[in-house]
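Person: Show me a sequence?

Helper:
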Amino acid sequence: MALAGCFIRLGNLMNSEIVGKVTDVPWAFIFLNNTEFSQEPRHPAQLYEAISCLILCVALYSIWNRYKTGLPQGILTGLFMVVVFVLRFVYEFYKENQVTFEDQMTYNLGQILSIPAVLFGLLGIWWAIRRRETRIFTNEASAAQARQEFSKPK
């Protein structure tokens, strides 16, 4: 999912969609194909999100690869939800509002919708740790080790 998010945001960048706010940072982009906004240097918010998703993909894969036999089922999904939507909440500060009614709001709709997603991810992490159930084993020895490790009282 994180890798798909990376490619989606790169597509947004190439299509000059979801542009950032005007800025003077040296890495700012001028979105020539987007006539809705002024042709001024803007935060490449899509690139920020794409890079974050790529890093998250590598991090989640590394965690899975290292601890796959002992990871509680659902923990990576919860971690993905928390990281993606916390970052989305932050990156929304760098983006132009997509609809005019958001101009009157303290937080835009993307930020508001990120809050329950973060809570859902935290709930998933808590649930996964509480259950301590694993189902991915490379061989019987690793399965036995995982059973022993996670059969300790909760």
About this structure: Residues 45-67 form the longest helix (23 residues). The mean pLDDT is 85. DSSP finds five helices and no strands in the chain.
